[in-house]
Amino acid sequence: MTNTQHDHILILDFGSQVTQLIARRLRESGVYCEIWPYNQADDKRIKSFNPKGIILAGGPCSVLEEDAPTAPDLVFTLGVPVFGICYGQQTMVKQLGGHVKAEQSREFGRAFVDILNHSEITSGVWDKGAHEQVWMSHGDHVASLPEGFEVIAKSDGAPYAFIADTARHFYGVQFHPEVVHTPHGAELLRNFTHNVCGCSGDWTMASFRTEQIEKIRAQVGDAKVICGLSGGVDSSVTAVLIHEAIGDQLTCIYVDTGLMRAGESEQVVDLFRNHYNIPLIHEDASKRFLSGLEGISDPEIKRKVIGGLFIDVFDECSAKVSTGAKPAKFLAQGTLYPDVIESVSFKGGPSETIKSHHNVGGLPDDMELELIEPMRELFKDEVRALGRELGMPEEFIRRHPFPGPGLAIRIPGEITQDKINILRKADTIYLEEIRTAGLYDKIWQAFAVLLPVKTVGVMGDARTYDYVCALRAVTSTDGMTADYYPFEHKFLGRVSTRIINEVHGINRVVYDITSKPPGTIEWE
Questions:
Q1: Rounded to the nearest 5 degrees, what angle is found at the Cα of 456, between the Cα atoms of 451 and 458?
Q2: What does the pLDDT read at residue 72?
Q3: Looking at the structure, do residues 180 and 225 belong to the same domain, yes or no?
Q4: Has residue 323 been placed in a domain?
Q5: Could you report the per-residue pLDDT of 221-249, keeping only the tens digit for each?
Q6: Omega before 518 cis (within 30°)?
Q7: 188 and 213 both lie in a single domain
Q8: 341 burial class (0-12, 13-18, 19+ CB within 10 angstroms)?
Q9: CA separation for the pair 168, 251 (Å, rounded)
Q10: What is the pLDDT of residue 231?
Q11: Which of 138, 141, 176, 400 is catalytic?
């Protein structure tokens, strides 16, 4: 994956839930970086990556445990600046001869540090003598420093909350500068990457676009490429970028599962076939998917059935492209960097499965096509930025995420055509009201869920016994964590009234106020 045309920062992950935020902060300042599990960073690989600096991220372990994760020794002898965050600070201190104490002064959440000395990292951000807010999440803390280090800042629970060895350009903080709850954290990280490491900050979407087009042309040559379109941002941007690189060598395949939002299939076909003039196969397989889902209520089985059917239909459509003297050789996917990161854990094994992810349903082991994944270096917000760089319509770029299995996982229980129709109408009304209220761009994702519950109601003096519709809307930056959107009750009342009046089959509406964690964004 390594991009060789820009300065690099290497982030070694020890299992923190917020390591991706470090990468996002660096990317926002124009610095290319990659996240590697600490135990997959051997000396040869690190040297080949040629980082201008290394960040040791946080993690859930204690450095005092037997077999606690450690940074490769090369990190401290390579001659590049090193920045340890939370667990990263503690392992750096211990590995360099200092000491860490266990759970005596725990700090979780908002805390404040007193700035005792000047540092290259705090220059222009924090002044000596200042009292600054940070975000802590630690039990253990540094108790004594290795030779060459001095204390830059302290907190009530961490006497060495910020340390520095200026001669070797080693730095460590007990708090998390990557989270928004440390107000000046992004500036501290920028000082490390730009002022200490000397990164130029030249990694932009314009440069990414140019470099990827060259890369795609070199990889593909004169071969044919197939791209699976879902109608979402990721696959759409992927298709437009590849088409800009190789033109009509690309054929897009859009499999209509019958589980899409209202008008979505028509929008996809219009954009790619009529606006971009990209060769497109539109396969209506809705009856096939509905038949395959008959009688199935388990969410994991639903996902597997949908994924398997998708692959079958996709293969059949691909065969049409592969006829003739020059069959298709490549398959393009909208895989993103979080997908790559989450495919392995910091322990080197697969990450814990919360629910099966659906990217074209999972690829068959015997697939003969080679993969093209031009987005695999990007986060979601970067994909949207690339879409704007490519001049794509805002309504596609700003579209809320939509799961691969579609409406099927927003209908807990068995799927029927009647339920799909009811949910689609309710979802359309909900999104219409959100857009009318000017709230669409303030919300990460909003959707309706048709619950497998019926309740008694009264309409026109008659008894009803219909479904309950749950509404969900969350705010987030990357979907990894999320909080519910605080609608005004007046808004929720208006949406509820419209849904109950206009959608036959629903007589009660509720609003989901669960955050992630402990819940997930989707219900299944």
A1: 120
A2: 95
A3: no
A4: yes
A5: 999 999 988 878 899 999 999 999 999 99
A6: yes
A7: no
A8: buried
A9: 53
A10: 78
A11: 176
Whether residues 169 and 265 fall in one domain: no
**Domain match, 322 and 438 both:** no
Active site residue 169: no
Note whether 458 and 483 are same-domain residues.
yes
If you ran DSSP here, which 8-state letter would residue 283 be given? E
Distance, CA of 289 to CA of 305 (rounded, Å): 8
In this predicted structure, the answer to whether residue 360 has a pLDDT above a threshold of 90 is no
Q: What are phi and psi of 441, to 5 degrees?
A: -80, -10
176 catalytic per annotation: yes
SS3 472: strand
Residue 86 catalytic? yes
* Spatial distance between the Cα atoms of 331 and 38, rounded to a whole number of angstroms: 31
Residues 265 and 341 in one domain: yes
Final residue in a domain of this structure, among 134, 167, 196: 196
What is residue 370's three-state secondary structure? strand
Which of 33, 61, 86, 197 is an active site residue?
Answer: 86
Dist CA 190 CA 30 (whole Å): 10
Cis ω on the peptide bond leading into residue 177 (within 30° of 0)? no
Spatial CA neighbour of 504 closest among 446, 410, 429, 433 = 429
| pLDDT band at residue 430 under the 50/70/90 scheme | very high
Number of residues assigned to the chain: 524
CB 9 within 8 A of CB 198: no
The answer to whether 256 and 283 are in contact (CB under 8 A) is yes
Burial of 390 (0-12, 13-18, 19+ CB in 10 A): middle
Q: Which of 413, 468, 423 is nearest to 299 (CA)?
A: 413
d(CA 508, CA 458): 10
> What confidence tens digit (pLDDT) does each residue in 125-159 have?
999 999 999 988 767 888 899 999 999 999 888 88
- Give the tens place of pLDDT for each residue, 72-110: 999 999 999 999 999 999 999 999 999 988 766 666 778
What CATH number is associated with residue 281?
3.40.50.620
Q: Which of 225, 495, 514 is nearest to 372 (CA)?
A: 225
- Residue tagged 């001095």 (tokens): 150
Q: Are 259 and 407 in contact (CB under 8 A)?
A: yes
Which tokens sit at 182? 């440390």
Does a structural domain hold residue 490?
Answer: yes
* Average pLDDT of the residues in 168-192: 93
Question: How many domains does the structure of the chain reveal?
Answer: 3
CA torsion sign for 310, 312, 317, 319 is: positive
What is the span of the domain harbouring residue 311?
A: 205-397
Same domain, 301 and 368: yes
9-33 residue pLDDT tens: 999 999 887 888 899 899 999 999 9
Query: Which is more confident, 3 or 355?
Result: 3
**233-246 and 205-220 helices cross at what angle (nearest 10)?**
60
Last residue of some domain: 196, 225, 254?
196
